[in-house]
Amino acid sequence: LMGRDSDKIGEAIGDAVPLIRAGSLVEAVEQCRAAAQPGDVVLLSPACASFDMFKNYEDRGHQFVQTVEDLA
């Protein structure tokens, strides 16, 4: 979880699934890369707007793709 609403989302999820918190998209992708096993899928699936971190949804998606490509 990351961003302004991460605490609210974390409270709603509770202990239903393991959560990883990150301060940035780069940190989140790096943590996912470290946790992923061969064959796993790392999916960008926003639960809400993220105007505190990105210009818009296109910027968020572009930065995600760029971050993944930079780590590949």
UniProtKB/TrEMBL annotation:
Keywords, alphabetical: ATP-binding, Cytoplasm, Ligase, Nucleotide-binding
Swiss-Prot/TrEMBL GO biological process terms: cell division; regulation of cell shape
Entry's Gene Ontology cellular component terms: cytoplasm
GO terms assigned for molecular function: ATP binding; UDP-N-acetylmuramoylalanine-D-glutamate ligase activity
E.C. number: 6.3.2.9
Top class in the EC scheme: ligase
Keyword Transport belongs to the record: no
Superkingdom of the organism of origin: Bacteria
Annotated protein name in UniProt: UDP-N-acetylmuramoyl-L-alanine--D-glutamate ligase
Source organism of this protein record: Pseudomonas jessenii
